[in-house]
Design a protein that fits this description.
alpha/beta, five-stranded parallel beta sheet, single chain, 11 strands
């Protein structure tokens, strides 16, 4: 990002007319939002509200269902279902959205007079008029913090909690490779604003329904190890269906964390979790320990992400999806 891009984003926000008769502002994060998407968006929404922007809504495409761990985030009252988004806002801002395809029907709002993109995916397609995209950032919340600093918005406890949730989830509780000294410095500033990291971690990472635990056991139990994949580096994969969710009376969000135990398999560099969607296709999560650039695999299949963490939408049977991934891994060894 350049200072010109930072300045353009600052001007876009400072140029808004506040108050009940002011400009409409629509914030959007990606379909099936995770902690970084929601935390970054709601943290910035709270900052805008502090600046007097009251005609403000936040949303995401698809079913209006928040994962239980995020239902108590500050600012959730600003969330509206997709049909209630502003139709002709003066400003649209997207958070953690790497491509227009992640916006669903909300892509029509990109016709707004100004679109500001905040993201950290290397595969971002730069679809805004202003693109604050930093692939070196550990989370989109790092980019949000940079914009808040330039706007002169102080971190209160509510904003800090949102940004901390975003930062902690995308760094895997500060254990992934993108966890730099700057990440810890940001976490320290957020904690100093008055949040309780222990309470947040218990709510976000360490609280799951009993049915979710039983479901995870089934899905992990059907994992398959292919030591020949990725040029002999190995691939482990598993899948979960809508029937699995129904049998254990669980919501789809409980599948999001399954990639973590799967990626811990010592004999495989690449981990793949294939999750059936209500539409009958598959949401595929990819992770690499370093031998493979899985973002190239995901992009070639219509998805995106980072070098060590990416995803795409798959079609066919789980076995066919896994075979497709395996076929692309050898060509994307680092």
């Amino acid at each position: 990002m350049t200072e010109t891009e930072w300045s353009a984003a600052v001007d876009a926000v400072r140029g808004l007319t506040p108050g009940p008769d002011g400009d409409e502002v629509q914030l959007i994060c990606h379909v099936n939002p995770d902690g970084d998407a929601l935390g970054s968006m709601l943290g910035f929404a709270l900052a805008l509200r502090e600046r007097g922007i009251t005609r403000l809504r936040a949303t995401f495409p698809g079913d209006f269902e928040l994962p239980t761990p995020y239902q108590d985030l500050p600012g959730v009252e600003l969330l509206v279902p997709e049909p209630e988004a502003f139709r002709a806002p003066a400003l649209v801002m997207t958070f953690d959205v790497a491509a227009e395809s992640r916006l669903g029907d909300l892509v029509a709002l990109l016709r707004a007079p100004c679109v500001v993109v905040l993201d950290h995916h290397a595969s971002n397609t730069r679809f805004g008029q202003v693109n604050l995209v930093d692939p070196r950032a550990a989370a989109t919340s790092v980019v949000v913090d940079g914009l808040l600093s330039r706007l002169g918005v102080p971190l209160d406890a509510a904003i800090a909690e949102c940004l901390y949730v975003a930062l902690a989830t995308d760094t895997g509780s500060f254990k992934f490779d993108m966890t730099t000294p700057e990440v810890h410095e940001l976490a320290a500033r957020l904690i100093a604003a008055g949040i309780s990291p222990g309470d947040i971690s218990r709510r976000i990472f360490d609280t799951r329904p009993f049915g979710a635990m039983k479901l995870a056991g089934e899905v992990i139990g059907r994992a398959t190890l292919d030591p020949t994949a990725a040029g002999g580096q190995g691939m482990v994969w598993t899948y979960a269906t809508q029937a699995d969710l129904a049998r254990h009376d669980q919501r789809p969000y409980v599948l999001d964390t399954l990639i973590d135990p799967v990626r811990g398999v010592a004999e495989a560099d690449v981990a793949v979790v294939i999750k059936e969607t209500p539409q009958g296709d598959w949401s595929v999560s990819l992770r690499s320990k370093g031998a493979v650039d899985v973002s190239r695999v995901a992009v070639s299949l219509g998805g995106g992400g980072h070098r060590l963490a990416a995803g795409f939408t798959g079609h066919g049977t789980p076995e066919e999806v896994a075979a497709t991934v395996k076929g692309l891994l050898a060509a994307n060894l680092i």
